[in-house]
Amino acid sequence: MKALIALEDGTVFEGKGFGVDGEKEGEIVFNTSMTGYQEIMTDPSYKGQIVTMTYPLIGNYGINEDDIESSGPKVEGFIAREFSKITSNFRATDDLINYFRKHNILAVEEIDTRALTKHLRVKGAMKGIISTKDTNPESLIRKAQQWRGIVGVDLVKEVTCKETYEWISDSPWLDANVLGGTDKEPLKVVVMDFGVKKNILRILKTMGCNVIVVPADTKAETIIAMNPDGVLLSNGPGDPEGVPYAIVEIRKLFGKMPIFGICLGQQLLGLAYGGKTYKLKFGHRGANQPIKETDTGKVSITSENHGFAVDVDSVKDHPIRVTHVNLNDKTIEGIAHNELPIFSVQFHPEASPGPHDSYGLFEKFKNMMKANRNPAGSAGGGDSPPRGRTSTSPHVVQSATQAHTVGVEGVAPSGLAGGGGDASPHVVQSATQAHTVGVEGVAPSGLAGGGGDASPHVVRSATQAHTVGVEGVAPSGLAGGGGDASPLNMETK
Question: Is 348 a catalytic residue?
Answer without folding.
Answer: yes
